[in-house]
Amino acid sequence: MLWEIKIISEDSAGDLRKNESFLKHLTSGSLTNKLLESALKGTPLLKMGNGNPKIMLTAGIHGNELAPQIAALMVVEKLKEMDLSGSVFIIPFSVPYATMNSSRRFKGFDMNRKASMVGSISNIIIENAKYLKIDSLADFHSTKPNSNPGVESIFCSKKPCQQSYEIAEHISKVVGSKIICHKIAGTLYHGALEDESNISGIPAVTCEVVSHNHKVDPGSHERSYLQMMAYLNYFDVINL
Predict the structure, then answer these.
(1) Along the chain (240 residues), what's the average pLDDT of each consecutive run of 10 residues?
(2) 93 lies in which domain range?
(3) In this structure, which of 30, 129, 142, 181 has its CB flanked by the most CB atoms within 10 Å?
């Protein structure tokens, strides 16, 4: 399997091994270890495979949402054993410093409200997606019980990228997550990575699983993993 790691922001460097809740659920693997080492330098972007389509998967925009970050590493270890039909770009921890401290914010800001702010981590992700000519982006989160949305779900929109809804529909059919669809991207709030991606013409979804903040609730990382694999399957990068 062809792969390479580059650092897209040095500003966000952090030692994830200092987060005990994260470390407790970590499964060792060669690429996992390299990504943890890379996070000491900043936000790592892992490329796996080659050719088209080009798909991007991100987790950890909120550092206190641990389940999808664990799931992203599970996906990494699974994909390295597979022949991919295309390229998969994975950012398993978007803000390593925030994950190290199990913090929702970075430098006082919610990075999922700052994707339109030049120089923010989420904006840097968008700019990399544009530069790489990514065909689609999926951002993975966890939501605590009895919050908003508080249920396993997939956020999407129908305009300007109808494919956002179609991707959500596929993931929902495969894993059963609830679809939460908005007519137009960015109407609920401003600066979400998913919305800014759709506005930029890159079809995107946000997937949520249920897990308490700062923790990995039983089964939550496995559910996030299934969402990620269903997303990749939509583009026939992998077969389920």
Answers:
(1) 94 97 92 98 98 98 98 97 96 98 97 96 98 98 95 98 98 98 91 97 98 97 98 94
(2) 3-234
(3) 142
